[in-house]
Specification:
By secondary structure, the chain is mainly α. It has a single domain, classed as Arc Repressor Mutant, subunit A, CATH 1.10.10.10. Helices cover 61% and strands 0% of the residues. The chain has helices at 8-19, 34-44, 49-56, 60-74, 79-88. The longest helix has 15 residues, at 60-74. It is globular and about 30 Å long. The protein starts with 7 loop residues before the first helix and ends with a helix.
Amino acid sequence: MRDRFLDAPLARAVRAARSGVPAGSVPRPAGLTAREVEVLVLLARHRTNNEIAAELFVSPRPVTTHVANIFGKLGVANRRDAAATAARFGLD
């Protein structure tokens, strides 16, 4: 299967598995938690907080908290800038 047909985070995990490097060793921007990275990926895909919550099977409130934490850790003020940072890390 060619990586270009895979979702970007999944493609990285597949490449890491092929190389023998654990998928968890993929760098996270600005010390984000695994859940914050999940939220950032969905945020970069233009999902609303409610859509992110539904996709992650949580209520919207923790998503709001994750988004605020992501903004603080990345030093950005809005979703557009967070998405741009995600793209720089290949998380879009």
